[in-house]
Write a structure and sequence with these properties.
0% of the residues lie in helices and 52% in strands. By secondary structure, the protein is an all-beta fold. The strands form 2 sheets. Strands 2, 4, 5, 6, 9, 10 and 11 form a 7-stranded mixed β-sheet that branches. It is globular, with a radius of gyration of 13 Å. The protein starts with a strand and ends with a strand. The relative contact order is 0.32.
């Protein structure tokens, strides 16, 4: 399974971005899919996770400002982020867990998000 993340960039505080993660090599419809991020000098943290059935979970730092969704027919998962803050600056990675959450076997290359104040 290959994951290709895209959609990152430079945005002003208060702005929005929509990240995409396209999967290839396998159908992702049965996978748990997640978005994680890592800022310089910090540990990787969970941003959002979506189950195969569409149940979503969000990290505390983004809850209420972000929405994860999936389009199984397009083999793509999305992360809509609104009201962005400078502390959202990080490299964002998508990940796939064929065997359930907590077992991410596949990771994308990351897409960088920079939020200016």
């Amino acid at each position: 399974v290959q994951l290709q993340a895209s959609g990152g960039g430079l945005v002003q505080a208060g702005g929005s971005l929509r990240l995409s993660c396209a999967a290839s090599g396998s159908t992702m419809s049965s996978f748990v899919m997640g978005w994680y991020r890592q800022a310089p000098g910090k540990q990787r943290e969970m941003v959002a996770v979506i189950s195969s059935g569409g149940t979503t979970t969000y990290g505390v730092s983004v809850e209420g400002r972000s929405a994860i969704s999936r389009h199984n027919a397009k083999n793509t998962v999305f992360l809509q982020m609104n009201s962005l803050k400078p502390e959202d600056t990080a490299v964002y990675y998508c990940a796939a867990a064929p065997n359930g959450a907590g077992s991410y076997d596949y990771w994308g290359q990351g897409t960088e998000v920079t939020v200016s104040s």
